[in-house]
Design brief:
With about 230 residues, this protein is α+β, with helices and mostly antiparallel strands. It contains four helices and 18 strands. Strand 4 and strand 5 form a beta hairpin. The model has no long low-confidence stretch (mean pLDDT about 85). Pfam families: DOMON (PF03351).
């Protein structure tokens, strides 16, 4: 109904003008149909985070010095038994470990579950010490990591099998921006070039060995027949 749609789209209000927004898939902030999203609104010294996850058992946001998992401060919004709770954790390499308390890091404010959609709101301190590392979201730039998973562990979240995205660049949360996901175009170009090179060179090698082995014999390079060298 209209009221449910209004609540669903409320998180996108002010994106790019009054608050920083990051969602997946890329471009979903404008179309207001993200599978998962996080927004950050600065009110004085308070940094108010809102998160949504359209499916799964949890949605989580991480602050990282790069776009990879490792040494990251994580806040999780977790659904368990129809209730939403907020937890903090730490990415130690490729492993995530739940921290004993959210105290001095975040302040949970609201959490709801509606038609399988997780929503939560919490505020985060401008500066906090997490796992003996300082996170200064007012003055330093951080990559945003967004994750969503379908399972929980006894004291933590399971693998991010539903979604995992990183922002395309580090952002300063005291500024306002719409943040794009990291582009994998270079990876795809690299893969395409590798396939083309293997297909092309392998075909040439087969042709040289098949048709020139018995005919290209009178000239040599470095003591080897040309057909052998070039194939």
């Amino acid at each position: 109904n209209d009221e449910a749609l209004r609540r669903k789209r409320a998180i996108y209000e002010g994106c790019g003008s009054t608050k920083t927004c990051f969602g997946s898939p890329n471009g979903c902030i404008e179309t207001q149909d993200c599978k998962a999203a996080v927004t950050v609104l600065v009110k004085g010294e308070r940094y108010i985070f809102e998160m949504i996850g359209e499916s799964g058992k949890y949605v989580a946001v991480g602050l990282s010095s790069d776009d990879k998992m490792g040494d990251d401060s994580i806040v999780e919004c977790v659904e368990n038994g129809g209730q939403i709770s907020v937890h903090t954790s730490w990415n130690d390499g490729k492993k995530n470990k739940r921290l004993p308390s959210v105290e001095n890091i975040v302040n949970p404010e609201e959490g709801t579950l509606e038609d399988g959609r997780i929503y939560c709101r919490f505020s985060r301190e401008r500066r906090s010490i997490v796992n003996n590392q300082e996170f200064d979201i007012e003055n330093k730039d951080y990559y945003l990591l967004l994750a969503m998973g379908s399972s929980l562990k006894s004291n933590g979240v399971g693998y991010h099998d539903v979604l995992r995205e990183a922002s395309g660049s580090a952002v300063r949360l005291s500024d306002v921006a719409e943040v794009a996901v990291a582009d994998d175009i270079l990876i795809r170009v690299h893969g395409a070039l590798m396939i083309a090179s293997w297909v092309g060179t392998a075909s040439v090698g087969i042709l040289l060995a098949r048709y020139y082995k018995q005919t290209w014999l009178r000239s040599q390079l470095c003591g080897k027949d040309h057909w052998f060298v070039w194939h």
